[in-house]
């Protein structure tokens, strides 16, 4: 064999080392899979609190432990408790799966019978009705089961977050130096990841809770059944692109009309279409556009994947993982392209953060 075509010892060592790293990483992730949501949550809150952490530690000269504890408490009150309240409310209301499914089946049958009596059109066959009921049962059971370890996830998440916030420069330096990428691509990942996290961790929950609160007012005004439960369902459904909160309030309105409350049902429908719809558009075009414009397909598939992996916490983490995977594909193309510095990734020789220090990752 020609010596020029032989594989060099360096290449063999690189492949062997990469294989060992992948095997060990797989073992770690497999055995510590329970803590993956905690790590994702810690990174999410770190990115949200990063600027304030540097301000308190380097401008105000606070002690690192004090800055970390204050920001952890603030994030718990502002970010975690509202989401936890909705999740806990759903668990409390839907905790008895048999009772919930019995009510859901009556609800669905009532809507189907009313539509068939009015338009003489079988919108759902018996087979499709059974499929919808079965899917709702499986989905609710899996989603609720994924939330029972929420307290454990939150506790371990803040345990990890404390060490990130206490020595943020060291944390970022370790991540930056460990990444086998060009500096331009590290900066690209940091900037995009920050925008994705801010849009998903702040923008989407704010839009969801805003729609839920506005819809809750309408549910009380027009006498909808179980308005507090509908508030939680509306807030969760509003995260789904295209259909959004309509997937909750339209069946409710039809159910109220089928029950004989025609005026209240029509009034709630008009309220939700106008007021709730206007709230959704207002928040999305003002808040989300300033953060990051996430493609609806990323959100749809991210929510499906995230709910299967993390329960309700997947509503936030799922879209981030999908968008981050697409970003890594772009980084791979840029990293191994013939051009050393792609035009869209040209960055200054020194990337400075707002606080005057080198921005290592985000």
Question: Features of this protein?
Answer:
single chain; mainly alpha; 362 residues; disordered C terminus
How would you explain this protein's 3D organization?
This protein is an all-alpha fold and 362 residues long. It has one domain. It is built from 13 helices and no strands. Helix 2 runs parallel beside helix 6, helix 3 packs antiparallel against helix 6 and helix 8 runs antiparallel to helix 11. The two termini are 49 Å apart.
The shape, in one word, is elongated
| Order of helical and strand elements | HHHHHHHHHHHHH
In total, how many beta strands? 0
The residue ranges in which pLDDT falls below 50 over 5 or more consecutive positions are 340-362
Instruction: For the record, give the distance between the C-alpha atoms at the N and C termini, rounded to a whole number.
Output: 49 Å
Helix/strand-derived category reads: mainly alpha
Strand content: under 5%
In total, the number of domains comes to 1
Pfam families: AI-2E_transport
Membrane topology: Multi-pass membrane protein
Transmembrane segments: 34-53, 65-87, 143-165, 196-222, 228-258, 265-283, 303-329
Main location: membrane
